[in-house]
From TrEMBL:
<keyword id="KW-0472">Membrane</keyword>
<feature type="transmembrane region" description="Helical">
    <location>
        <begin position="239"/>
        <end position="262"/>
    </location>
</feature>
<keyword id="KW-0633">Potassium transport</keyword>
<dbReference type="Pfam" id="PF02386">
    <property type="entry name" value="TrkH"/>
</dbReference>
<feature type="transmembrane region" description="Helical">
    <location>
        <begin position="345"/>
        <end position="371"/>
    </location>
</feature>
<feature type="transmembrane region" description="Helical">
    <location>
        <begin position="410"/>
        <end position="432"/>
    </location>
</feature>
<keyword id="KW-0997">Cell inner membrane</keyword>
<feature type="transmembrane region" description="Helical">
    <location>
        <begin position="72"/>
        <end position="93"/>
    </location>
</feature>
<feature type="transmembrane region" description="Helical">
    <location>
        <begin position="40"/>
        <end position="60"/>
    </location>
</feature>
<keyword id="KW-0812">Transmembrane</keyword>
<keyword id="KW-1003">Cell membrane</keyword>
<keyword id="KW-0630">Potassium</keyword>
<feature type="transmembrane region" description="Helical">
    <location>
        <begin position="475"/>
        <end position="500"/>
    </location>
</feature>
<dbReference type="InterPro" id="IPR004772">
    <property type="entry name" value="TrkH"/>
</dbReference>
<keyword id="KW-0406">Ion transport</keyword>
<feature type="transmembrane region" description="Helical">
    <location>
        <begin position="186"/>
        <end position="209"/>
    </location>
</feature>
<feature type="transmembrane region" description="Helical">
    <location>
        <begin position="12"/>
        <end position="34"/>
    </location>
</feature>
Amino acid sequence: MRKFNFKIILQLMGILLLFNGGFMLVSGLVSWYFNDGALNGILLAGGLTVFIGIVLRFATKGFEKKIKKREGYLVVTLGWVTMSLSGALPYILSGAIPSFTDAFFETMSGYTTTGASILNDIEIIPKSILFWRSTTHWIGGMGIIVLAIAILPLLGIGGMQMFAAEAPGPSGDKLHPRITDTAKRLWFLYFGLTLAEAVLLKLAGMGYFDAINHAMSTLSTGGFSTKNASIAFWNDQPLIQYIIIFFMFIAGTNFVLSYFAFKGDFKKYTKDEEFKYYFIIIVSLTIIATIIIYFYASVSIHPTDIQVIAHPKVFGELESSFRHGLFQVLAVVTTTGFVSADYTIWTPFLTVMFLIMMFLGASAGSTAGGVKIVRHIIMIKNGFLEFKRSLHPNAIVPVRYNTKTVTRGIVFNIMAFFILYLIVFAVGSLVFSLMGIDLITSVGAAASSLGNVGPAFGDLSPVNNYSSLPPFGKWWSTMLMLCGRLELFTVLIIFTPYFWKSN
């Protein structure tokens, strides 16, 4: 068996625990401010997490400051698991979610920015716990950006993302030549956008606590809300929903492009092929959804009612149909998972369309989950070029993306990823069905968990949650969330025998 540098792995786990514990203590301040009764539990959770982090830091002094690929895979996967295990403590110790299985599910859903929940009544949960819940989203969302921009390329599996993102890599533009400085600039952008949305939501009429929480959930494309009805609570306040729509679109866009746009270089948007398709897909799907909702569905505007009653030839209001259509298209494509209406009863056609959308994902280099649009673009281009290659077998016909030639290695990587994604989805659906869960719910649970979407279909539709899953179903769902969030290879490679063999 290959010798691993476990000291540096434990050292990095210690740093993550210190980071996590610090954010828990911030949630403790929220508990103190609102006097919501959860202060002791949160402080205990934060103190315990910080203590373990300090112990790991001191116990691994003198480690070799060199991390190799295999350690890198372990750091990424174990990092997310460690954050989720420690992140469950505030729920358990405060009594908000006493079950370890449920607390771990909620936490993993937070860090992977899935947004699936087991809470049946969110509004009775202490405000500090709701804040911590949103914080897990926010941490996980930025973690994914840093992972995609800085870590995956070093492991040799981020070439595709970097090709699309024009981020640090052998053939891309750089925000800054050093990874740490790149991550720092993206953190500032992430924080700035979160603050901007929170301010706009407050000015639009949302309470400041709700505004902060929803801003963190939006920019991370997470979807946790402070209301049982999610964003449908504000169905009678269109401005609030349009603000969230705008920031969902930004969150699903490559953050490197947004960084350059923030500096005044908007040409990056117009030149980027993935962004063009991302925009076209959103517009096209919204038009389809709007037309069908307008002619065949009636959207309730009651602030606590997210039911949509499908009824043929009933004419709804055009603006309402457009807003709900656009909102739910963005919520699913960007894998944010917010809910303004129950899209699963907007006619069978739209139900199938939203299921397919769960396999799209937004842009590479964004906080969105899913397959990512750039992969679809390259797979489709390569598929069409196969016709030309069949007619001209001796011709060299490369796939081009953003005017550059895509290497065969990247094409093979993308095809392998997509095939593996479908296999994991199929196995995931089968495992859910083995638990006695019906077909629609099983397929929806697998697609939503793997794509980090949140709301699914059947018993897990937008008007329900994941509390009905059996305990093993919740653990299986968290496994799919982790695999989908970390781009499959990062997690699954650890379970292969040659990963542990010596070179």
